[in-house]
Write a structure and sequence with these properties.
With 305 residues, the chain is an alpha+beta fold. The protein is built from nine helices and 14 strands. A hairpin with a 6-residue loop joins β1 and β2. The radius of gyration is 23 Å and the shape is globular.
């Protein structure tokens, strides 16, 4: 089995061969001394290596693919099964970490990741700068992420391929970046505001998150919601013994209990802490905004392979 020096295998998957193809085995290694995401069973590089659409790799991640036997080989099925068993036993039997694509800043060791759209197109000490045809790699050393750098990134104007300013950067990326910074790194945010008071005005306000959702675990119990994931659904979420549950009444559905067939069916089902929901009451959304709940979605937003 291939091994990375000073690295630990944390995730992997395999594609079983068909026809004349060969088994393809992928293993993801982590070289970080300590990763806060891995402690939550999440891995940025697993999301990057497993998706053709993701450009957000991890500074500490390494992915290696190897090919095995063809489908016609007698041992092909056994080879595939052995690798599946190997992946299931990673991390002392905990299994592979879940692939994760960050939507907000992440600090690992002495590095910080700023995965905001178009930001790597600005002049900064990125691992790999971006340009209109390449998004770059949005990592820089923490020592370079100063209040002056925050001001520079917030005031930047990335240019489009055919000329002109990319307006979405100032409208979407900068407000979200500053809101996240305000709660993840309040000292740097405060120092940046001292350098340039306009930073506070550029930070996303409650109206910026009017249509956003938050992890159900950030809500008070019980809370009335109007949407779960991408589905409009009126209901009440409340904390249960083993997590959260959603209770919803479907007025268009009735059930027969032997006596009354006109009562609406009430459905109760469990929710993961990571389920994204939208609270119905504006005052609840405002409380969540003030508590920094909208920057917490980065912890729960996971990519699927």
């Amino acid at each position: 089995m291939f091994q990375v020096d000073n690295g630990t295998a944390v995730a992997g998957w395999t594609r079983r061969a068909e026809g004349r193809e060969r088994n393809v085995k992928t293993t993801v290694y982590c070289t970080a001394a300590q990763c806060p995401l891995l402690a939550r069973n999440l891995c940025i590089h697993a999301g990057y290596a497993g998706s053709l659409l993701s450009n957000k790799s991890c500074q500490f991640g390494r992915a290696y693919r190897t090919t095995g036997l063809t489908a016609r080989a007698n041992e092909a099925r056994a080879e595939h099964a052995r690798f599946v068993e190997h992946i299931a036993g990673l991390r002392d039997g905990k299994g592979p970490a879940k692939p994760y694509t960050p939507a907000s800043m992440v600090v690992i060791g002495d590095w910080i990741m700023l995965p905001y759209d178009f930001m790597t197109m600005l002049d900064a000490p990125w691992t790999r700068p971006g340009h209109p045809l390449s998004p770059g790699v949005p990592w820089m050393r923490l020592e370079d992420f100063t209040p002056a750098m925050v001001v520079k990134l917030a005031a930047g104007n990335p240019q489009a391929l055919m000329g002109g300013v990319i307006s979405d950067y100032r409208k979407k990326s900068v407000p979200a970046f500053l809101y996240d910074l305000k709660f993840w790194m309040p000292d740097i945010y405060a120092a940046a505001c001292e350098l340039t008071p306009a930073i506070e005005d550029m930070t996303a306000g409650p109206e910026f998150y009017a249509d956003h959702k938050v992890p159900v675990a950030t809500l008070p119990s019980p809370t009335t919601i109007s949407m779960i994931g991408h589905v409009a659904m009126e209901g009440i979420v409340s904390r249960a013994d083993d997590g959260w549950e959603l209770s919803t009444a479907n007025a268009g559905t009735t059930f027969w209990d032997g006596r009354d067939t006109t009562r609406p069916a009430r459905v109760v089902f469990p929710l993961l802490d990571s389920a994204l929901v939208k609270p119905s009451a504006p005052e609840v959304a405002l409380t969540l905004y003030e508590a920094g709940a909208y920057c917490l979605t980065l912890v729960f937003k996971e990519a699927k392979i």
